[in-house]
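[audit] Reproducing an earlier prediction to check determinism. Same input, same settings, fresh worker. If the tokens differ from the archived copy the diff job will pick it up downstream; this log only records the rerun itself.
[audit] input (447 residues):
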Amino acid sequence: MMINTYYLLFLLIASIGFIIWFTAYKKVNAFFTLLVAALGVGLFSGLPLIEIVTALKTGFGHTMEKIGLLIILGTTLGIILEKTGATMSMANYILRVVKEENAPIAITLTGIIIGFPIFCDSAFIILSGLNHSLVKKAHNRMPVMAAALATSLYAVHCLVPPHPGITAAVGTAGGDLGKVMLWGILVAIPAAFVGYIWSVWRGSKVEYEYIEPEVIPVETKQLPPVSFSFLPVLLPIVLIACKSVMPIFIAPALMVQNGYLQMISFVGEPVMALAIGIVASFKLVQKPFKKDLNHWLTEGVDKAGMILAIIAAGGMFGEMLQATGMGKNLGGMLSGLSLGIFFPFLIAAILKTAQGSSTVAVITASSLVTPLLSNLGLSSPMGLTLTILSMGAGSMVISHANDAYFWVISRFSNLDTASTLKVYSVATLLMGLTVQLLIWVLFSMFK
């Protein structure tokens, strides 16, 4: 058992090294690199050949099911906002409010606020066009801006209900949702600022390849009004936020019976909210460019195709790692150790690093840790709250090539793989460790 577990650990490290080497240094297409890596993990782990094929198809299909429509609609919305000059209009407004050198902290604060009600990948897609404009307008480096936005969204996603992983962990462990939300906010904010500090420091030094998006020239006098420019971005955010917070205040039975609440839930689905955002963006298309609208819609779908292929390939790689039982085996290595409040963190971190999904990591970790709470001395009300947050901290560590969000950041920021790993992935490690240290201090004070 232990030999098999250590072999799987070696296989994980080798596969990650292969992906980094071939995408970052050999410049091989990321889709085919991830496909080969997934196949290699399946073959070398001894999975039956038919299971390897099934895992590839399942990983591809599940990823497309979760974010396929979201990426197509988000990409199309971004194209329209860019072509109409709306992103430049928003960037001009933000830079009038804050100085150019403060653009990274401005996008970090934006990510923290928007990240509360919205999944990190949805929010990053919606705000990516604005980020490109801030890079161009304020002469900031894209690794700084992309990582600052990505880490702020990620901190809230992993630690604060009603995001799915941490919310499910509350249900499994029997914690208090209100307490987890309150303490989650308190530790998510320092995590976001650790991400910001690392993004600014490392992102300002890293060598990177950035392809600036091609945009049609838009004269300053032709830029749409700021209010109309922000509307297609803020409207989906508000709709998604309303749907996300409704279950906290409204009983499920009432939501089923009330037609108005059902409609809010419907338009608050991220796919529907983005579709509504696209419709709202039509108001931005000025008469000289109305004939180009269909071309922009087509360009949005075309651009989404390559992004989808790479992200779905990351899903195949993550699914293959999961099929090997890597996460459970590695978690079993720690089950006999007396680690206290560090145990839930390490279990979730291993699961996250091995299979890629923060949500899956924290949900799986909660099912493994909950029966052991008394033995670990974590069964008090405060101990339970901090245990759940410790699993959330572990689910941050480490976001890399098997995480769909990693590829959303890389592709929507037009950044190469090496830069994304050096800035964003390392930031997720530092953020998770920071939160866990804070939790350890809190546990020492309140146990």
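[audit] rerun output stored. Observation attached for the diff report: The chain is about 80% helix and 0% strand.
[audit] end
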